[in-house]
Specification:
35% helix, alpha+beta, Aminopeptidase, 185 residues, 7 helices
Length: 185
Amino acid sequence: MSAPATPVTLRRYGPGDAAVLLDTLTDVWAEAHAGHDDVARAGFTSETLRRQVTGHARRDDFTLITAYCSGHLVGFGYGFRCTPAYWYGEELMPSITPEEARITDSLAGICELAVRPGWQGEGVGTRLHAALLDALRPQWVSLLAMPDNESAQRLYQHLGYRHAGLYRAGADGPVLDLLLLRTDF
């Protein structure tokens, strides 16, 4: 992995800031997912991202980390602290191992991590992830990933995530990989 020619600056935002950044976040997300037909087939669109961010930004612990280069947003990630029951859902909860991840009071869910294609493979996603963990400081962190998104799966494996189960978003929703990471906080 080579360093980007121009330095990347990370910024942290809270719940009240998401609305102002929503159009730009949506643009970054759309570019990051361009050509990923599985994302569109699963029903994930720019509009669903807008609704998701808007809904999650109502949480007091909503944390958004952005990556800028020369004043342009090149990537972002966001998440929040939550309960295991909220994040895993009642059906999946009994199968989550280890048990500590089911009963913890220190869990964060990362909802999105997107980097513009020209910046992928440059360490931006890793830096965004680290900044989110530093801001949220959970003992456990979890995220959902498209099973066929090889670049995302490689990143999450590199970061130390392990497969914790299959997650279905609603009765007709897509099947996603639920990934889990124990942190050192």
